[in-house]
Design goal:
The protein is α/β, with parallel strands linked by helices. Helices cover 23% and strands 25% of the residues. It has three domains: 133 residues, Aldehyde Oxidoreductase, domain 4 (2-Layer Sandwich), CATH 3.30.365; 146 residues, Aldehyde Oxidoreductase, domain 3, CATH 3.90.1170; 331 residues, Aldehyde oxidase/xanthine dehydrogenase, molybdopterin binding domain (Aldehyde Oxidoreductase, domain 4, 2-Layer Sandwich). The longest helix has 20 residues. It holds the Pfam family MoCoBD_2.
Length: 728
């Protein structure tokens, strides 16, 4: 690992540029940290959800009579018990709290049960009789727009066209391809869970594992028919998120049961229900055509993309826009034609997941760059460097990249790293491991490269801001600070970063992070690699106000200095709906990977031997956390490359368990040599650049490129399965 030292703005220990101990670290390591699934109330009951077994069906009747007779049952609720608006959604309010007359995906909530014990709730749930008229599901994303309309207005959620330069230019060398990306799950280890506590005045408190407290609150209040101030949310311990907690799951359901019964209600999904209870990464089909001259310079890129949003919109409009605007990759191309389509189907709903549209496009355009290199007789690195974006380059949207874009430098860094030693004779380090499938016979090695681009923060004119409160008082004769935001800590380390910022800006070592809740203004979503940028900016701005009032004092007596402020990054704008032109994004992040793999060509087994990365982070506020983010993002990219996929048939999920949905373990992750560049963005607080998502984008295509190099196979779909390598 190579880290450029960051200059401190304060002599206080634990400030910016260092890696202090996380305030939640010891508890998590000891297994004592309280996650949302650990919530408890002495008088609580348990909630359970009855879900549709069908991807698409009309509901002809619901009979709850026998369920209500089960001893210990307090309530059985259906859509008629929703007192407010029975529709919610992040961008489009198209998803019912409880299904009314139709279900659009397997697992859609139909009824709720509240009972004195979770087993009682399950027994009662089995006594609810729902009659369905089963319909033929719409499952093909490429034809969905012309299929049976699943929503008023049809099945097209959004079409994003981008037109730049000539639309009919020709080139000397042309390569085409069709690529597929499977449906990946966020696979967070902490299941959806929460506790709703009713108050005597008809209001409700919800303790919840989520990514966006205020948007949750707004949707819950509308469904409950309550003013927003009567719905109070407090963040509980979150066991991972990665986009899967940005949408509602059981939030409204728990509150409905609590208000209906007058008792606290706890809901916790088991692993199977979790697969049905949250959105996933959009599967995609992508058609690409790249044209270049004989020197390898790109002349044009043309692409048509289809992204399957599943039954409800969630964040599909934004995912489609990201796939489109980032669809040619970190390369300079004068002539671009993009058509990206997001559609409704009866497959599981899809929404935010780390990489958010850029992952799907990245696999396709990087596969194309390898194909182009082969057609030109160039190395994969050289063809990328020939076309690499730099500061001042123009995106297909017409937006100028006005901060560092070290694409060529990142590629050279990973290319120049020493390669690992030859194929091992230790079976633990071979494909198949201790299953003893090979001792090296039939094992071939390959090396692959990829680079990716990701937008940072929210885009297209969204009012993206965060609110922070910093309070300073005297404690035991010394200044102490407390920081309060509604920005969700989901495991990424925001609690540590906020402490570091306050220490650096105020020179105060004792900093307490208060619980995140809705008693303070919006902190925005913990997504889009935005929280250190936006909430960090808000904390920094609040500290500046406090510092001005401190005026150098180290003893303020009984005075409490308390400042609250909102902070916004520079504005973006919607892209033109016909040409896709516009300054859509705040900032761009770049990462490159080199993967080395060993492949057992007889059994189709793959071992990733090394996965080296170089990434520009602007400035490493917490170097250890930065490296952790790069490692974690790369692990999820590895999962998509060779193992992770929710498999569906006719809209039904075939593998809703960690037995059949495979995720990388510590034994699957190879050693990583990581170069962290700190090329400051002049527009960002401390010069930072979002870290969490870029490594997920380039790791997947790098691994697949290495498998191609080892086997000579085309491999146009991820994840790569054994049968793709053996032809069986």
């Amino acid at each position: 690992m190579t880290l450029t030292p960051a200059e401190l703005t304060s002599a206080v220990s634990g400030g910016i540029g260092t890696s202090p101990q996380r305030p939640d670290g010891n508890l998590k390591v000891r297994g004592e940290f309280a996650y949302a699934s650990d919530l408890w109330h002495e008088d609580m009951i348990w909630g359970a959800t009855l879900r549709s077994p069908h991807p698409y069906a009309r509901i002809t009747s619901v009979d709850i009579t026998e369920a209500l007779k089960v001893p210990g049952v307090y309530a059985v609720l259906t859509h008629s018990d929703v007192p407010g608006r029975n529709l919610y959604g992040l961008e489009h309010k198209d998803q019912p709290v409880l299904a009314v007359d139709v279900v659009r995906y397997q697992g859609e909530p139909v009824a709720l049960v509240g009972a004195d014990h979770p087993e009682t709730a399950l027994r009662a749930m089995k006594k609810i009789v729902v009659s369905y008229d089963v319909l033929e599901p719409v499952v093909d994303m490429e034809t969905a727009a012309d299929d049976t309309p699943l929503h008023p207005g049809g099945n097209l959620v959004r079409h994003v066209p981008i037109r730049r330069g000539s639309q009919d230019v020709t080139a000397d060398v042309v390569v085409t391809g069709r690529y597929e990306v499977g449906m990946q799950d966020q696979a967070f280890l902490g299941p959806e869970s929460g506790l709703a506590v009713p108050a005597t005045d008809g209001s409700v408190d919800l303790y919840i594992a989520t990514q966006w407290l205020h948007v949750d609150r707004d949707q819950i209040a509308a469904a409950l028919g309550l003013p927003q101030e009567q719905v109070r949310l407090t963040l509980s311990g979150v066991g991972g998120a990665f986009g899967g907690r940005e949408d509602l799951s059981m939030q409204v359901h728990a509150c409905l049961l609590a208000l209906h019964t007058g008792k606290p209600v706890k809901m916790v999904y088991n692993r199977e229900e979790s697969f049905y209870g949250h959105v996933h990464r959009h599967p995609a089909v992508l058609y690409y055509e790249h044209g270049a001259d004989h020197t390898g310079k790109l002349v044009y890129v043309r692409t048509k993309m289809y992204l399957d949003g599943g039954a409800y919109a969630s964040s599909t409009p934004a995912v489609v826009a990201n796939a489109a605007t980032l669809g040619v990759g970190p390369y300079e191309v004068d002539n671009v034609t993009v058509d990206a389509y997001g559609v409704y189907t009866n497959n599981p709903p899809c929404g935010a997941m780390r990489g958010f549209g850029a992952v799907q496009a990245g696999f396709a355009y990087e596969s194309q760059m390898d194909k182009l290199a082969e057609a030109l007789g160039m190395s994969p690195v050289d063809v990328r460097i020939r076309n690499a974006m730099t500061e001042g380059s123009v995106m297909p949207t017409g937006q100028v990249v006005d901060s560092a874009a070290p694409v060529a430098q990142l590629l050279k860094l990973v290319q120049d790293k020493p390669l690992p030693a030859g194929t091992s004779t230790d079976i633990r380090e071979l494909p198949g491991g201790v299953s003893n499938t090979t001792h090296g016979e039939g094992v071939v090695r390959g090396v692959g490269y990829a680079v990716g681009i990701k937008n940072i923060c929210f885009s297209e004119g969204y009012d993206d801001y965060s609110t922070a409160r910093v309070r300073v008082s005297m404690v035991n004769g010394e200044l102490a600070a407390a920081v309060h935001t509604a920005a969700c800590e989901v495991g990424q380390g925001l609690v540590t970063i906020m402490q570091q910022i306050v220490r650096t800006e105020l020179g105060i070592e004792r900093v307490t992070v208060l619980p995140m809740d809705t008693t303070i203004g919006n902190g925005g979503s913990t997504s889009a690699s935005r929280q250190t940028y936006v909430t960090g900016g808000a904390v920094k701005a609040a500290c500046a106000l406090v510092k001005a009032r401190l005026d150098g004092r180290t003893d303020i007596g009984d005075e409490v200095i308390d400042e609250v402020t909102e902070w916004r990054h520079r504005a973006t704008e919607p892209i033109d709906p016909e040409t896709g032109q516009g300054n859509a994004h705040v900032q761009y992040g770049f990462a490159a990977h080199r993967a080395v793999v060993d492949v057992d060509v007889d059994l189709g087994l793959v071992r990733v031997v090394s996965l080296d990365c170089a990434q520009d982070v602007g400035r490493a506020l917490n170097p250890q956390a930065v490296v952790g983010q790069i490692q974690g993002g790369s692990a999820q990219g590895l999962g998509l490359a060779v193992m992770e996929e929710i498999q569906t048939s006719g809209g039904k999920v075939r593998n809703p368990s960690f037995t059949d949905y495979l995720i990388p373990t510590v034994l699957d992750m190879p050693p990583m040599s990581i170069d962290v560049l700190e090329l400051a963005d002049p527009h960002a607080p401390y010069g930072i650049r979002g870290v969490g998502e870029p490594p997920t984008i380039s790791s997947t295509p790098a691994i697949v490129a290495a498998i191609r190099a080892a086997t000579g196979l085309a491999l146009t779909r991820v994840p790569v399965r054994p049968e793709h390598l053996t032809g069986t």
